[in-house]
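=== RUN LOG ===
request id: a7f3
mode: sequence -> structure
chains: 1
length: 479
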Amino acid sequence: MTFQQPSSALIAPHAVHKGRRGSPAFPIRNLRRYITLLSQQLAIGASLIVKHPFKKPPVPTWPLHLTLFVAVIQATEAHQEHFVEDICDIRFWIDTFFHYLPKLPQMQIISFKLPIPAHGRGLGGVLEPLDQAENGHRVLPGQWISDSKVWSRIMHMPLARSAQGSKDPYAAREGEKVILYYHGGGYFICSTATHRELLWRISKATGRRIFAVDYRLAPEHPFPAALHDASHAFCHLTDPKECGFDPANVTIAGDSAGGGLTVGLLMYQRDQGMPTPSKAVLLSPWLDLTMSCESWVTNEMDYLPSPPKFEHSFNPISFYCQPNVKALSRHPYISPLLGYLGELPPLLIQCGEAERLRDECVLFTYKAGGCLGSSNRLPFQSSSSPRHHSKHVELDMYPGMVHVFHAIPFLPEANMALERMLDFMQRKESEAEVASLEAEDAGKVSEITTTTTTMFDDKMMMREDARLEVILAKAQDVL
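=== RESULT ===
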């Protein structure tokens, strides 16, 4: 697909390339601006520390360190146009910081470059043009990330029968469960390196190693490039001649944009009749790029910026949804909330009550579970066409938490969420139990749980339940 630069994009010529990102020289010209920004952040931090005993934080239950964390990020976003010249500047500073961040001794990281077959993988539908254009010269970079004890245990296990024909030294082990992870970053920044600490904690909590890829980023590579790479990664994991994992032993997970990409992949696999993973875990997923939900406006305490205007220089939506932004932003593989969500594998969605993406996570849960009536029908289906809901769709909403709070290691809620993730992935249900559930909960499959701590009383939880009722009452207007 030819790169088409948005007319308003702040992107330097060297950012338009065949690889994942540009390689700008050290931006000395901006050093003064960075020093100014740093001094502002230090002043904000000092002010918050002094005022904290006397002034309530934006969310009453926030500890000081979370208040500081959010305030610093908000200050950076508020001044980004004063110190960022182009997208490469953003990527440079993010990647440089995480590249030199010391690796914990408990981490096991194996980098790889996954070769793309010259003739693709026979993918159809929206991915067919990209798949047919493969010439065998492209590679997909990524990493195996694991807790060192988990890695050592797995590497001593015998090779799986499904991987007997594999030459990959890290192929599937007998009975091994694995996680395929897609990182967030608005489809235009971040990488496996930026997420390695979170992925290590997920590996440690779940006892599984994680396969993460650096899918192509916008605006150099708009939709469906990321979906193509996501599909390729899953095919590599499950191909008997490559990693050889049984799809039933694979859980797909992703945060933010990576969560939306995860659902887009599940929908594509369903539509193409391809094998699907056993389950999926979505951490604060970005499911509606039209930004239709009210929490984008009401939850301004979150560190995510307010919805950008379409002509804004750093609008990830205009980057990803080229060339027709308003039309493509409603594509079901881009905004899964607006598509048909039936016949998907079991899903666990985790989000923060204070984040801007809260409402779309709630609506997605109800819609995927078949609780929104006709809104869960394919656009080309008649009212008499058969409809199916997805089974076992669960939402954990954590009071007071912000976007992808899982990545903030000092929060107790982050550890609680990882424990819930393990519980969800380990859940075993016999066919009889599934049949019983379907008979018992027909038409009411989705499960909404508000995860609480001792800091939240019954009255507060009643207010949260009432808030959910309001969100659902507005669902038909959004969908």
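=== NOTES ===
The beta strands are 107-115, 139-147, 178-182, 210-213, 250-255, 279-283, 347-352, 393-398, 447-450.
Residues 105-478 form a domain with the Rossmann fold fold (CATH 3.40.50.1820).
=== END ===
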